[in-house]
Specification:
Elements: H1 2-14, H2 16-21, E1 35-50, E2 64-78, E3 84-98, E4 115-129, E5 134-145, E6 148-160, E7 166-180, E8 195-212, E9 215-228, E10 236-238, E11 244-246, E12 252-265, E13 271-281, E14 286-293, E15 296-299, E16 302-313, E17 341-352, E18 366-376, E19 380-391
Antiparallel strand pairs: 1-2, 1-19, 2-3, 3-4, 4-5, 5-6, 6-7, 7-8, 8-9, 9-12, 10-11, 12-13, 13-14, 14-16, 15-16, 16-17, 17-18, 18-19
Length: 392
């Protein structure tokens, strides 16, 4: 936990001079010079525990901790034609330790798989025509860790209705991944290893509508196609004859999530936010997500946001537990993330906007703290704590 706050405060000091010297635009002025619109400094700490590790065939420890730090910087300017140009640059670094991954080598007291660092930068360019209500956005991203490399790209377009109360959005994303084939130690042979590819293509459609001054709705639909190596190479599967195998799943998967989101402003101090999603895919997994968050303004500068999420899913048709698979099956996994379970996630957010700014820095106007506790019926438990300091 100490590492989280040192990171956030060190980043604050880097922006102190900018926060003190950046002039504020007059109301009607649109800057043609590139300026800071918003900076978010986010740190989080996550830990989990369970007893259904996929690395050891559906049994064994799932202990894991993760420390994540992200810096998100948004810059903007207006062109001579009046278009708004926004550049969003984000850099994130995670460090995790995993007792389950450490069991890839069953004989090692501590292996290279016991911990790793993930580095994930991204950049997004957005061009907005405020007069016509249209927005075009394009982005690139990458994610790098010891056994995984991912490159992503996305493009989106949105158009507001004539009365500006509704907005259509269409988005396309792709992720081109390379997986390093690290097998369980007892399954390694001469010539095993290497790399395998995994490609993901996703299309999204959305429509949001301001129904009245108190009520807003949004509808979301996605279709996601995956192809390539969709297993994880270090996941063991124990058959009913006691033999051990490497997880094997189909090389294609089609996913379809559908969702609706609603916000209701119950007076000046309370917002009720609700969300529901239905998910299905061709591996026979179906899932339901229901979420409720109720931000309440306690004072003009302080608000609390209790939240709760319920999730339920069926098992994919290729899942069975430890020593339940047989040698007659073509595909098999003992990954409990793909099993049947229900989960609950409950927590609280605190948002503070001090009138003189965070730590006396005027433009660092908001600090948010969030804590959540997660339980699921497999069983697995986890806790996450995050801090977000915003410059605006």
């Amino acid at each position: 936990m100490k590492r989280i706050f040192i990171t956030g405060f060190a980043l604050l000091s880097l922006f102190r001079l900018s926060a003190q010297n950046t002039p504020t635009d007059s109301t009607g002025y649109k800057s043609t010079k590139l300026k800071i619109e918003e900076i978010n400094l986010v740190s989080s700490y996550y830990k989990q525990d369970g007893n259904n590790s996929s690395v050891t065939g559906g049994i064994g420890t799932e202990k894991l901790t993760d420390i994540a730090n992200t810096v998100d910087v948004k810059l903007f300017k207006y062109g001579k034609n009046g278009l708004k140009h926004t550049f969003d640059v984000e850099v994130g670094v995670d460090h995790y330790t995993s007792a389950s991954s450490d069991m890839i080598d069953l004989q090692a007291n501590s292996s290279a798989s016991s911990g790793d660092i993930r580095f994930y930068p991204s950049v997004t360019y957005t061009r907005e025509n405020e007069a016509k209500g249209t927005t075009l956005s394009m982005g690139l991203s990458s994610s790098t860790e010891y056994d995984y490399q991912s490159f992503g790209g996305n493009v989106s377009f949105s158009k507001k209705t004539k009365d500006r109360n509704g907005e259509f959005t269409a988005k396309f994303q792709t992720f081109l991944d390379q997986v390093k084939l690290i097998l369980p130690i007892e399954l390694r042979t001469a010539g095993s290893g290497g790399n395998a590819s995994r490609n993901t293509f996703a299309g999204s459609l959305g429509y949001s509508q301001i129904v009245n001054r108190n009520f807003q709705l949004a509808f979301l639909a996605d279709i996601i196609s995956q192809s390539g190596y969709l297993s994880l190479p270090f996941h063991r599967v124990y058959f009913n004859d006691g033999s051990v195998h490497q997880e094997k799943l189909p090389d294609t998967r089609l996913k379809i999530p559908l969702a609706v989101r609603a916000s209701y402003f119950a007076g000046d101090n309370v917002i009720i936010r609700a969300y529901y999603r239905y998910y299905t895919d061709d591996w026979n997994l179906t899932a339901h997500t229901a979420e409720l968050e109720v931000p309440v303004k306690i004072t003009p500068f302080l608000s609390l946001s209790p939240f709760y999420r319920y999730y339920s899913q069926s098992a994919i048709k290729y899942f069975k537990g430890y020593q339940e698979h047989t040698d007659t099956e073509e595909f098999y996994t003992s990954n409990y993330d793909l099993s049947k379970f229900n989960s609950n996630f409950i927590g609280m957010g605190l948002k503070f906007t001090p009138p003189r700014g965070v730590f006396g820095l005027k433009h660092f106007n908001t600090i948010e703290l969030r804590y959540g506790h997660y339980t699921r019926t497999t069983p697995l438990t986890s806790d996450i704590f995050s801090v977000n300091i915003k410059y605006k």
